[in-house]
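User: Reviewer 2 asked us to show a designed sequence for the structure in our supplementary figure. I'm pasting the structure tokens here. Could you produce the per-position amino acids so we can include them in the response letter?
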């Protein structure tokens, strides 16, 4: 056996360490954490951060930024397209960084019960990220899952001058008390078999909050209202996979521009389509990928 030089041995050990790190480091390991008082956010930056548009990505109730980054894969998908992705943290009863919720009005958990001003927190997050990383504060997008979708839609409805477009997955804002105050392009993705936030509204059989959720169609109506008349609707259906689901896509256009897209997952449950947890069980569709649909929609108004 030929003896190896110390330099070769060190090089081999370094390569092995890099390979091991690639195997064990989580998907969000390259993100930066920024603390804002007792709250924080994670941020995933594109190769060119200066002037980049940014996406607020809000975790579901009981989740946290790292969990949502890992489960959705949105950071990796968006940064290669030039977006910065911010995963802010909700709040918890015990003040920790896990099992966090958002105050979306009628839901959810600690944040809603205590009336936490999460809209103010998100505006603070945007201002901090724009100043700290040189992002484009004029191109701010919002998305979220479940409780996060409720707040993302509510934030967009009340702050049309801040949010360029919004995408809600498996969550409906409280349309009884929230009016959309200006035109905001909206994408809505929701499953008809969602046991947590029912497509038709009401209390979900698996809901932990017992919230009387607004129906999806009321959110569609609310976001279409500020655009006025002349809306033209076109629908299509996707059913390419034998997974027990199909997808209906309805595009609502004004003067040739899609101002609202409703993606209804027939048989779809409470999931982020295409996410890590959305691959191998009932009610999880292969027909669409939420990240792809959201980024495609945001690109249209970017």
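Assistant: Here is a per-position design you can include in the supplement:
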């Amino acid at each position: 056996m030929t003896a190896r030089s110390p330099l070769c041995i060190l090089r081999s050990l370094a390569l092995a360490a890099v390979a091991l790190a690639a195997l064990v480091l989580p998907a969000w390991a390259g993100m930066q954490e920024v603390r804002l008082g007792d709250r924080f956010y994670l941020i995933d930056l594109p190769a060119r951060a200066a002037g980049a548009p940014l996406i607020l990505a809000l975790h579901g109730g009981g989740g946290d930024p790292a969990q949502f980054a890992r489960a959705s894969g949105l950071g990796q998908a968006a940064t290669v397209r030039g977006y910065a992705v911010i995963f802010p943290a909700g709040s918890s009863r015990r003040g920790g960084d896990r099992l966090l919720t958002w105050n979306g009005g009628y839901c959810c958990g600690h944040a809603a019960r205590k009336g936490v001003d999460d809209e103010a927190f998100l505006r603070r997050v945007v201002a901090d990220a724009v100043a700290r990383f040189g992002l484009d504060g004029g191109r701010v997008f919002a998305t979220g899952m479940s409780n996060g979708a409720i707040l993302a839609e509510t934030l967009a409805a009340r702050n049309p001058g801040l949010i360029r477009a919004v995408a809600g997955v498996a969550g409906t804002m409280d349309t009884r008390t929230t009016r959309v105050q200006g035109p905001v392009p909206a994408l809505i993705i929701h499953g008809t078999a969602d046991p947590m936030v029912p497509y038709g509204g009401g209390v979900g059989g698996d809901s932990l909050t017992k919230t009387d959720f607004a129906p999806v169609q009321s959110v569609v109506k609310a976001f279409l209202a500020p655009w006025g008349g002349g809306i033209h609707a076109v629908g299509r259906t996707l059913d390419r996979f034998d997974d027990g689901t199909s997808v209906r896509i309805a595009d609502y256009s004004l003067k040739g521009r899609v101002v609202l897209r409703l993606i209804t997952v027939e048989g779809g449950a409470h999931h982020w389509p295409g996410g890590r947890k959305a691959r191998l069980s009932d009610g999880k569709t292969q027909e669409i990928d939420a990240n792809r649909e959201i980024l495609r929609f945001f690109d249209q108004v970017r």
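For the response letter, you might also mention the following. Strands lie at 32-36, 39-44, 54-58, 84-88, 140-145, 163-169, 186-191, 232-238, 246-254, 257-266. The domain at 27-301 is CATH 3.40.50.1820 (Rossmann fold).
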